[in-house]
TrEMBL record:
Name of the protein this chain belongs to: Probable butyrate:acetyl-CoA coenzyme A-transferase
Acetyl-CoA hydrolase/transferase C-terminal domain location: 278-433
SUPFAM superfamilies named in the record: NagB/RpiA/CoA transferase-like
Keyword Lipid metabolism assigned: yes
């Protein structure tokens, strides 16, 4: 069937398309590289006509125009499932409302729990000969958003890579109400995170725990990136990829011959991912590449599915860890930094995997004005969010070592975690542990 005529009938300008938005509506703006650009600019031009339009998004990578034109926050209200650096910048100027999630559950939240969406607008790759628009490198919960919305508007960007599935990676023209041909902006770039000496030391400790045929999940940040680069330089063989976020480190591992996926229990030979954010090199790599399989997040992150891969190794970051083993990876006190995202999903999945291990990494301390401040703390800051409960977290890693917490009593945890702290800060932590009744005098701290 030729879909050209249907395409022409639905093709409108961005200004025409956003006329369907009304005051009080809940709308979705797309996520990550799929967040709309021309439709955002067109909606911003309607600022004086609209009130209380509530916008959903996830991991904003471009500054939205609607935020610039509405400093009073009367017309547009920003909601995020997970904050990016750009979202944090916006949050320093105006309200950004975060919704707590387990990322693996997000498609269900959208289908069953959130307010119905009046409009979904998202960037897509050009329509193929079968009438499908590919969602590009952000499968996530996109299909659920389109199903939940009364009106679907796609903004075509020919810079968007066509990401093969998996499933739920595209939408058919028959399900689309309006098409806008965008100005084809390049995708936002997230270059390789720089790895510090601290990151490299922690990465070495994790590499020691890996073996041939492991399946690897990397989170975002310098430490996971350091692990990826170190893997590429190692002699490990036949590694697999089952991850939430695909980053440049996986390209390094593949091109170095370390990552084949041949031994994976599920999706053998495939690099399974939910979304991809990185450099143009990464976007070029995933474009139309049958090696890569894009899945919705309720597949990639569901612990019962990810755990089907034996020897699942998951590597994520934290902001602080207390002496009981509670991990905060998303806030500084009550100030939201990112979100739960998929960290809890993969901490759970790794331990359920046969031979699997999860690693939560952080530097032992930070330094400000010449003063060291420990990231291993007696208790989390008031208001800090527990991302991984003490009953769930497995390995904690700093540049000073690694500690496996499963089966450990509170005093054993205190001892093990204090050993990961900066040596200059350990006595203070011991005093805190004594005051909390979780210290034994027989402990020997090296």
């Amino acid at each position: 069937m030729n879909y050209v005529n249907e395409y022409r009938k639905k093709l409108v300008s961005a200004d025409e398309a956003v006329k369907v938005v009304n005051s009080g509506d809940w709308i979705d703006y797309g996520s990550m590289c799929g967040q709309v650009v021309m439709l955002d600019e067109a909606l911003a031009r309607r600022k004086e006509e609209l009130k209380d339009v509530k916008i959903w998004t996830l991991l904003t990578l471009r500054r939205p125009r609607v935020m610039d034109v509405d400093p009073e926050e009367e017309s547009f209200v920003w909601h995020s499932w997970h904050l990016s650096a750009m979202d944090r910048k916006i949050a320093s100027e105006r309200a950004v409302y975060y919704s707590p999630i387990r990322y693996s559950e997000l498609p269900r939240y959208v289908r069953e729990h959130i307010e119905p969406l009046a409009v979904a607008m998202l960037q897509v790759a050009p329509m193929d000969k079968h009438g499908y628009f590919n969602f590009g490198p952000q499968n996530s919960h996109t299909r659920a958003v389109c199903e939940r919305a009364r009106i679907v508007i796609v903004e075509v960007n020919n810079q968007l890579p066509r990401c093969l599935g998996g499933y739920e990676e595209s939408i058919h023209i028959s399900e689309v109400d309006y098409i806008v041909e965008g100005n084809n902006p390049p995708l936002p770039q997230l270059p390789d995170a720089a790895s510090s000496e601290v990151d490299k030391k922690a990465a070495e400790l994790i590499i020691e725990e890996m073996k041939d045929e492991c399946c690897v999940q990397l989170g975002i940040g310098g430490m996971p990136n350091a692990v990826g680069k170190m893997i590429a330089e190692s002699d490990l063989k036949d590694l697999g990829c089952h991850t939430e976020m695909l980053v440049d480190a996986y390209v390094h591992m593949y091109e170095a011959g370390r990552l084949t996926g041949r031994k994976k229990n599920i999706d053998p030979g495939k690099m399974v991912y939910d979304f991809a954010v990185g450099s143009q090199r990464l976007y070029d790599f995933i474009d139309n590449n049958p090696l890569c399989a894009s899945y919705p997040v309720n597949y990639t992150n569901r612990p019962s599915i990810a755990a089907l891969n034996d020897n699942l190794i998951t590597i994520n970051n934290a902001i602080e860890v207390d002496l009981y083993g509670q991990v905060c990876a998303e806030s500084v006190g009550t100030r939201i930094i990112s979100g739960t995202g998929g960290q809890l999903d993969f901490v759970l999945a790794a331990y359920e995997s046969r031979g699997g291990k999860s690693f939560v990494c952080l530097p032992s301390c930070s330094e400000r004005e010449g003063k060291l401040k420990s990231k291993i703390v007696p208790t989390l800051k008031p208001g800090a969010i527990v991302t991984d409960p003490r009953s769930v977290a497995h390995y904690i890693v700093t540049e000073y070592g690694k500690f496996a917490m499963k089966g450990m009593s509170v005093w054993q945890r205190a001892e093990g975690l204090i050993n990961l702290a900066h040596p200059q800060l350990r006595d203070e932590l011991i005093q805190a542990a004594q005051a909390q009744g979780i210290w034994r005098r027989s402990n020997k701290i090296s």
